[in-house]
Amino acid sequence: MTVHAVWVISKAGGLVFSRSYSDVLPPQPVNTILTLAGILHGIHAITARLTPSPIPGVPVTGLEAFEAEGWGGKVFLTPTGTKFVVLHSLPHPGLDELVRSIYEIYSDAVMKNPFHTPEMPINSSLFESRLQTLMAGVNGPQ
Amino acid sequence: MTIYSLYIFDRHCECVYYQDWHRTRPARSPPSTTFKPGVHRLPPPQSNTTNDGTQQRESIFANPNPNTSVNGGDHNNRNSLVSTNNGRSGEKGGGGVGGGGANKGLPFDEEAKLVYGVILSLRNMVKKLSGREEAFTSYSTGTYKLHLFETLTNYKFVLLSDPSSDSLRFVLRQLYVGPFLEYVVRNPLVDVDSRDRGVDNDLVSCVAE
User: Fold this and answer.
1) Does domain A3-139 correspond to CATH entry 3.10.20.30?
2) Does A42 touch chain B (CB under 8 A)?
């Protein structure tokens, strides 16, 4: 599995972090990613609405993963509404663990940082370097 | 493996065919202003407020002679009707237990628009991200998975199944190559650019596998 990119979307639908980790997908201007993140936020809400057979008592969930022919995307929604989007290559063993460790790094490096304003873009070199190490471990053996 | 519903959209973004099978929250029929014949077999909008028995529902159907199950087509027609009715009663029961409003399905036309909107935006997003013509194939949520197969003529085949199923694009492709080409494209009675359709028996049997 190769991780192509990681986005973090705030609960209002704004992009607060995006980083590309491979050159399989062409680099996009930040504005494009910002737009796409907003669209994804909307799609997430609509897909929950389209559930064909909801189980009573169980909350409906929105988009969790999407796939194209050569790559896919995983959307992980935290209980506080922050979304992590991971774009990855297609056989994806260990993706769930990867997303969880990204969440862990986020909680450690961003949420515990007293100088971080919630819902604002993430400017944390600790977060970036720890993500970089994680991705190097995942992408490296390819 | 469960399959919930099938939509076919044409190049005018219109839903030209719809069928559902195991939905506990069925689509409601659209209001009479936007009702189009031949797309789906949901009961038409209720103009009469009687507590309708099944016979009456059947008689409202687009099929002129639904009670005679002499050939396979009518038989399947009745099957799809029965499943719809079961879903309806299930919905009523569920609504009584836990707040009916949230459990009510969307009107069919609204739902079709939402499905089309979602696949269109995801398709554009995938195209933009990959920088070339790359087809978006499926997405999944906690409760269902949506598969998309797009033909060269811009017909979009959309299938909703349970989330654990594998890629069902080949089924959609078979559906296109088999029944759709045979009974719709090559059928001089079907006006391809409008909406009337009538190939249901083969579609149903295809799903039975």
Assistant:
1) no
2) yes
